[in-house]
Amino acid sequence: MTRAVPPWLAHALRAQRGPVPWSAVTRGALGGGPLLLAAVLAGRPTLGVVAAIGAMFAGINDRPGSRRASVGRIGGPALAGAAGLVVGTYAGDHLPAVLLTLLLTLLGLAAGAVSALGPVGSAVGTQLLVGAAVGAGMPLPEPGWLRASAFLAGAGWLLLLRLALPTPGSLAGNFRFDGERDAVAGVYDAVAALLEATGSETATARRAALTAALDQAQDALAGPRLRPHPSTAAERRLHAQYAAALPLAEAATALAWAGEPVPARASEGPRRLATAVRGAAPTGPLPAPSRTVPALRALDDALLHAAEAFDRADGGGLHARKRSRAARLRTVLGARGREYGTRVALCFGASAGLAQALHHTHWYGQHTHWYWLPATAVFLVKPDLGPLASRVLSRAAGTVLGALLFAGLAAVLPRPEGLVALVAVSGALIPVATRHFAAQTAVVTVLVLALVMAGGEPQASLGRIGETLLACAVVLVAGHLPLPGQRGGDAIRARLTEAGGAAQAYLDHVLGGSGDRRARWALRREAYRTLAEARAAIALASAELPSLSRHADGTDDIAATLELLVDTTTACAVHLDDTGGPDPRHVERLAELADRVRTRGGVAVRLPPGHDRVVC
């Protein structure tokens, strides 16, 4: 009898798949390497080291998506990293070891809480802490403000490459569109896939894929802009094409909820719309589905509306996620922010204190770069890189591999030209290596060791291995300690509560009789998006070691029930549009699901007054 692989180990053995992002590889090769070369030729190699570090972090954050979305994804963390460098440099120069450790611990608390805001918040928190550790622990001749300027220059250089260099497919129709067209086309493909899966066991997974596609398109189109509204006809048309996909998604979800197979030709229209978006071409004739039930009639109406929208350039609502400052502050100060902030502060502060103790007792010998230990702890406790045990295992394996590889290369490569070439090659490999944490760690280890040596320091592979293993032990212990004043799983419960609130707002709007469809689509998007985030957090917690994974027991069932409630609400909305009144079947099912959520998960979801008795 074979035993199943533990979830944390299965995660460590699993890697993402996909085509090689050649455009990102090119940007990586043109990032840190040329900057280091220019600094070496100018006689300021240490400035080149800091600039290359900035380009390296920008390369890690250079994920697939639109140019507009990349501005915040790369620029925000870069500003945080520069601020961390300034704080760390001046604190390292003027504070004794105990006060420095206390300051870094407080920074860990703040950065960890900010990380609860999402992937960009996590990157901001990570670069703030790594910048502070590097600024305090890397002895460089430049003052803090100059280090920060070099760091920003490196990140800005890679961001400039991201904005200026075309990517495959971006020249179709308009150079300004990079990942936007593919993201919007992906929504129509996801609608078609859901229609094809209706009535089968894969329908639930296809509906989740549709949510992910809508999230990606929304983020791709809603990034920062100089003008408050789309400025060209092509951009307004693309926004209209995204908006036209929302009623299609709604109708497809209602059909999936009913569970009855639909005619094969129902998916042909969305497929043709996806092709038209990618090629910036006319839609051509669209096959009309049958109109036998309300959801199929809604699908047909949505296809007709989409065909009209594709021929116009009148914009369209993005229904972008708008969170007020007060809402973001509640997230940072709430259960999620407190739980993760405390964990990061504990790991970062403990590793910084241990590094200070080892540094001042001269355990490092001639290597005064004590920043490696706390910086490693930051990456280990980062929330969006998999279960904690998996991250520790991958980090240890990647560091050993990278350090040994660099030791062999350093013995044969000429200096400094060989080191510059190694930095360029490592930068090119980062976009591919991000598919697995161990591979990313190995590449980053080679790159950083090359930078340290290019800055005039001796080869330090053995020390990096020892420090990384020590950081792994610190985080593995600190990451599983019970936190005083907090119950395990508070962050998951907070996400489920947020998802329940979004589902309640959507339910109230649909059963409240409002005819504002745009508001309904926005509420539906927020309900599904918060549910997807809760599902991701639950899946991550469930893959931890038993001491942490037990806090996620039963939460997946609550999330599944909430998703079914939102699906039912969507089906009810489509029926209301067709008949003008609620279907007693829908209301009865909604009441049952709301009651199940309250009793099993304590999430307050109720039918609006007057609807809890409309049951036949």
UniProtKB/TrEMBL annotation:
Membrane-topology annotation of the record: Multi-pass membrane protein
Membrane-spanning segments: 35-59, 71-91, 97-117, 146-165
KW Metal-binding (keyword) present: no
Keyword set, alphabetical order: Membrane, Transmembrane, Transmembrane helix
Chief location bin: membrane
Span of domain Integral membrane bound transporter: 357-477
Cell compartment(s), UniProt: Membrane
GO cellular component annotations of the record: membrane
InterPro entries: Memb_transporter_dom
Name of the protein in its database record: Integral membrane bound transporter domain-containing protein
Species this chain originates from: Streptomyces fungicidicus
Lineage, uppermost ranks: Bacteria, Bacillati, Actinomycetota, Actinomycetes, Kitasatosporales
